[in-house]
């Protein structure tokens, strides 16, 4: 008897946003300091006065949608939703507001309804899973997915950058009083449990405070060593990073007078590096630039250029590709480097660039995935059976070129800033985006997942078996298919040894179905042949001579 097979409602897939004019991208909204915030509208920052981060002295984070609508913002111990309320079960997170980079949002590479929130406190990195759906669009955290330990014995440094495939994401952190760097890979199934481990330059095992930053192209890491005078003259370090393997291959120490570094940031094209110094003028403070065009210790040291300015703390690049600095305690302005890709005397610096509307900054600015600021970075939106929508954020481009990774299509390329493309089939495609500007180009490649209705059909059946155990296989061999059995299993098949009705709820991005299996174990047959008997057969033997 078939108990039921049907096609269920479409899986939830959506993008949450609020109307913010012409804001752009996942970094469009910043919240930090004492209820301070800025919002980028058409690449122009202006102050926001709706922040509920009443006191965020250091680590903080924010996340917006591809069109710039606010999704979440946070300090390390709690998350706030787009309505500026604490997220459901989003409080009492294992994070300290005194961690330099204690908060970071990592969206799932494929499923936009899932975001991972990384926090740091007491030498431990943890993460929680933030989920959204049609009935809870503001988000929530399940108790079973809250404060999951990621790494123990780590410093306050956290940064992230995309894998070379443009889909997966590396989350990087430094061990405490150690020369060890950990790189965790996040894929569509979540955090890989084992990090890639690299041993860094052994000039100092200290430097537990200050920022760690990846370059937007994922080729370098910058590390601040802000601890105490005992570690001088090394104030910062630059590492080569392989964003395909997650390994560090080479390190250079930076010596810069007697003041430790706290803030670090790269230009969008990843050719210049900036450090901010602890201290106050005239003895310290300000920002220092280094040219990375030649990765050599002497060349980098000789390129050092001090930018005039007051004391700086965190540095953070914006979607406008300019670099912002948080000023000394309780300052109502952010500083800004107007042209980070210029060198030395050609740099334009503004000490009071963005007014915070009477609110004040402190040590920290929000952290983001650093590849968001790559000149050719792009987002995409794939909804079931609709053309894929691409959104890019280039600044000062002369032209752009897209390759959608479907060579059989007659419309596989485009020169439009934000195009759409209608893919034929469900699955992964490698999309390449090139930005041309000033006789140079930047390329970003990304593996995207296209969602289509697959027309799933079930295999509901009843079966009478004599086995002592029986395997029910519901596998449809589809990428990213999810299985939920009434036994609690999430595997594609289960082994059973009792009669009963079993069902599996199977979900792809655009299709769902329920298959029901009615299994009856038959008793072992009782076969009797009666008493043993003997039978004699007369055989005649003949001998031939």
Task: Give a concise summary.
The protein is mainly β and 545 residues long. It is built from one helix and 41 strands. Helices cover 1% and strands 42% of the residues.
Fold and architecture overview:
- With 545 residues, the chain is mostly beta strands.
- Strands 1, 36, 38, 40 and 41 form a five-stranded mixed beta sheet that branches. Strands 12, 13, 14, 15 and 16 form a five-stranded antiparallel beta sheet that branches.
- The chain starts with a strand and ends in a 24-residue tail after the last strand.
- Mean pLDDT is 86; it is low at 1-22 and 541-545.
Descriptors for this entry?
single chain, 545 residues, mainly beta, 5-stranded mixed beta sheet, 5-stranded antiparallel beta sheet, 1 helix, 1% helix, elongated, disordered N terminus
Number of helices: 1
| Fraction of residues in β-strands | 35-45%
Low-confidence stretches: 1-22, 541-545
Instruction: Give average pLDDT, whole number.
Output: 86
What summary fits the major beta sheet? 5 strands, mixed
- Care to count the β-strands? 41
Rg on CA atoms, Å: 29 Å
Shape: elongated
Proportion of helical residues: under 10%
Distance between the termini: 72 Å
Structural class: mainly beta
């Amino acid at each position: 008897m078939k108990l039921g097979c049907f096609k269920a409602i479409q899986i939830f897939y959506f993008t949450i946003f609020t109307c913010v004019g012409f804001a752009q991208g996942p970094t469009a909204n910043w919240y930090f300091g004492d209820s301070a915030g800025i919002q980028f509208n058409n690449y122009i920052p202006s102050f926001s006065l709706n922040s509920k981060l009443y006191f965020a002295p250091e680590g903080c984070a924010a996340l917006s949608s591809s069109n710039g609508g606010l999704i979440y913002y946070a300090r390390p111990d709690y998350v706030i939703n787009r309505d500026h309320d604490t997220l459901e079960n989003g409080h009492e997170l294992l994070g300290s507001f005194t961690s330099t980079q204690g908060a970071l949002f990592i969206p799932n590479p494929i499923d936009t309804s899932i975001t991972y929130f990384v926090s740091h406190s007491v030498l431990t990195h943890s993460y929680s899973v933030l989920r959204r759906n049609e009935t809870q669009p503001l988000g929530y955290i399940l108790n079973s997915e809250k404060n999951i330990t990621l790494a123990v014995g780590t410093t306050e440094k956290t940064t992230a950058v995309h894998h070379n495939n443009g889909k997966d994401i590396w989350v990087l952190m430094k061990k405490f009083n150690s020369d060890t760097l950990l790189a965790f890979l996040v894929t569509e199934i979540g955090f890989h449990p084992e990090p890639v481990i690299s041993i860094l330059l052994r000039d100092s095992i200290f430097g537990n405070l200050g920022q760690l930053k990846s370059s937007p192209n994922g080729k370098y890491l910058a590390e601040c060593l802000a601890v105490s005078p005992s570690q001088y003259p090394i104030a910062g370090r630059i590492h080569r990073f392989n964003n395909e393997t997650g390994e560090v291959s080479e390190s250079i120490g930076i010596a810069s007078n007697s003041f430790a570094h706290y803030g670090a940031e790269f230009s969008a094209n990843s050719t210049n590096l900036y450090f901010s110094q602890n201290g106050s003028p005239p003895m310290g403070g300000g920002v220092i630039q280094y040219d990375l065009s030649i990765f050599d210790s002497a060349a980098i040291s000789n390129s050092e250029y001090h930018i005039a300015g007051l004391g700086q703390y965190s540095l953070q690049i914006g979607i406008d590709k300019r670099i912002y600095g948080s000023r000394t305690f309780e300052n109502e302005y952010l500083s800004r480097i107007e042209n980070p890709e210029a060198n030395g005397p050609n740099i334009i610096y503004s000490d009071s660039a963005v007014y915070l509307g009477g609110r004040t900054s402190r040590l920290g600015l929000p952290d983001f995935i650093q590849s968001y600021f790559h000149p050719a970075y792009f987002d995409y939106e794939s909804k079931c059976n609709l053309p894929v929508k691409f959104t890019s954020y280039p600044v000062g481009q002369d032209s752009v070129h897209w390759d959608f990774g479907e060579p059989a299509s007659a419309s596989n390329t485009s020169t439009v800033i934000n195009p759409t493309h209608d893919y034929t089939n469900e699955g992964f495609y490698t999309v390449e985006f090139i930005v041309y500007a000033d006789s140079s180009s930047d390329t970003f490649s990304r593996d995207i997942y296209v969602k289509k209705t697959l027309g799933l059909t079930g295999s509901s059946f009843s079966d009478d078996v004599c086995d002592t155990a029986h395997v029910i296989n519901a596998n449809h061999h589809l990428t990213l298919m999810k299985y939920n059995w009434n036994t609690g299993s999430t595997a594609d098949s289960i082994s059973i040894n009792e009669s009963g009705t079993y069902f599996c709820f199977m979900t792809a991005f655009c299709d769902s179905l329920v298959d029901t299996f009615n299994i009856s174990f038959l008793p072992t047959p009782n076969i009797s042949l009666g008493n043993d008997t003997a039978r004699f057969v007369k055989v005649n033997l003949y001998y031939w001579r």
